[in-house]
UniProtKB/TrEMBL annotation:
GO-annotated cellular components: cytoplasm
Catalytic activity reported: 4 Fe(2+) + O2 + 4 H(+) = 4 Fe(3+) + 2 H2O
UniProt keyword list: Iron, Iron storage, Metal-binding, Oxidoreductase
GO molecular function: ferric iron binding; ferrous iron binding; ferroxidase activity
One Gene Ontology term from the biological process aspect of the record: iron ion transport
Metal-binding is among the record's keywords: yes
Stated name of the protein: Ferritin
Residue numbers binding Fe cation: E36, E71, H74, E115, Q149
Family, similarity comment: Belongs to the ferritin family.
All residue ranges annotated as the Ferritin-like diiron domain in the record: 19-167
EC code(s) of this entry: 1.16.3.1
Described purpose of this protein according to its UniProt entry: Stores iron in a soluble, non-toxic, readily available form. Important for iron homeostasis. Iron is taken up in the ferrous form and deposited as ferric hydroxides after oxidation.
Gene for this chain: FRIS
């Protein structure tokens, strides 16, 4: 079977499994996949910034590297879900990170802003699922994403508060050691 034939066969199989899955939800999931992959890419850039020899904060490196992995896993969960529902995954180009932070506090604020953006997008997707009477998608989002987003935002806000208390170099070193080995919720 040639490529066009395989593509036609795949579309037919997707139609067989597709039920109560609005194209608007499919499009929104694709946007969410892109946002999760972009967040993963951004967190990876942050991680390796803190791994540089002139920065040397291994706790923050590990924290942001873990956050990157988590966001990539979220994208994978969404892609698996999309295939289960008979949708088509449409990956897009991911722009290079554009960070301008010069302090740990600024990096944490940037991360919190990213998490809020992801959360807003998930809430909009959840509302869209409800609008289209799609309890499967609503449950999937509630079970796998929404609570975790609140936990991540709380954790980052706590870290920002803690770093504000210790903005001197020794304080940053102590903070970095404190978060070593902790993953993003």
């Amino acid at each position: 079977m040639n490529f066009a034939g395989r593509l036609q066969f795949r579309r037919l199989m997707c139609l067989m499994v597709r039920q109560n899955f609005a194209s608007e939800c499919e499009n929104a999931i694709n946007k969410q996949i892109h946002l999760e992959l972009k967040s993963s890419y951004d967190y990876m850039a942050m991680a390796y910034h803190f791994d540089r020899s002139d920065v040397a904060l291994p706790g923050l490196y590990g924290f942001f590297k873990s956050a990157s992995s988590e966001e990539r896993e979220h994208a994978a969960q969404l892609m698996t879900y999309m295939n289960k529902r008979g949708g088509t995954i449409c990956l897009e180009e991911i722009p290079a990170p554009q960070f301008k932070f010069t302090t740990v506090k600024a990096a944490l604020i940037e991360a919190l802003d990213m998490e809020k953006t992801v959360n807003e997008s998930l809430l909009a997707l959840h509302a869209l699922a409800n609008e289209h009477s799609d309890p499967h998608l609503s449950d999937f989002l509630e079970t796998n994403f929404l609570i975790e987003q609140v936990d991540a935002q709380k954790q980052l806000a706590d870290y920002i508060t803690q770093i504000e208390r210790c903005e001197k170099e020794l304080g940053v070193h102590i903070f970095d050691n404190d978060i070593k080995g902790k993953d993003m919720h």
